[in-house]
Amino acid sequence: MRRRTQPLLQQRQQALKRREPFLGSMFHENSKFTPQARHELGRRISQLQDEGLLRRVSSSYKSHPGCPQVALPRAALHLERELQEIIVGRRSTREFDTAQSVTLQELANLLQLSYGITGSLELDEGVTQYLRAIPSAGALYPLELYLVAQRVEGLAPGLYHYRVAQHALEVLETADQAERMLRMEREWGMGSPSAFHLVISGVFERTMFKYHERGYRFVLIEAGMLGQNLTLLAECQGIRSCMAGGWGDDELNQLFGLDGGAESTLLTLCFGRASRGGP
Ligand SMILES: Cc1cc2nc3c(=O)[nH]c(=O)nc-3n(C[C@H](O)[C@H](O)[C@H](O)COP(=O)(O)O)c2cc1C
């Protein structure tokens, strides 16, 4: 009990003295690919071929049956600046112009081109595997995207889930989250409320059933790739963003009805137009 209340730094110093490995180092060690682990993985993957691997690779989507849906326009992104200029010009923004909103088209561009379906493969047994806008270990796509909308034209403020297979938003709740988000954003160091948030979650089993501990690394790597895709796609459209690392896991998981174990929030991003004179 006493240990839990000790400051983290103190705990780490004591662990160092006792030569105890940190949890992170232990995880890293146990998720290494060794010749033996590779052999074991190969054996399991061939076993999985007979146990529904095909079905799994063709069903990497979550949906909320019975939820109303908002159809999204297909992506239509027109670059007015060179990619180099967009990458160099990207800066995290924490002060948003609360008088400006973003359009549904801009949001749809973000969603479809960051994690939407971009191709397909016909596998054995008539199974279609859909491919997405970012690479994914084993093409298993473990991530989900949730939206907290505040100032998006054509969308009531509220909570939504991106239903990738239909390129639509599922309406989870239309209660205005402005106050709650303002409080959370202040905790994360933001200055003024953003137009919307996107929350990336991971459904760990989708990747870990195949790659075990190594799979956890893959899920985090993929969340980072999706985050960067989102910031650059926003930047292309004159929308600024900031990643936020300091959310309270339980509070955010509860907001979207996630259990925090099988599926948990991994990364949060705020978006909006920068206030005048801001970065
Ligand atoms: C995983 C991650 C978490 C972050 N968390 C926060 C945060 O909670 N609050 C914040 O103001 N900025 C946060 N940032 C933004 C960084 O502070 C920012 O990227 C960094 O200062 C570099 O500045 P730039 O993005 O403008 O290039 C985070 C960035 C990353 C990648």
Automatic annotation (TrEMBL):
The lineage of its organism: Bacteria, Pseudomonadati, Myxococcota, Myxococcia, Myxococcales. This is Nitroreductase domain-containing protein. One of its GO terms (molecular function) is oxidoreductase activity. It comes from the Bacteria. Residues 87-273 form the Nitroreductase domain. It holds the Pfam family Nitroreductase. InterPro entries: Bacteriocin_Proc_Enz, Nitroreductase, Nitroreductase-like, SagB-type_dehydrogenase.
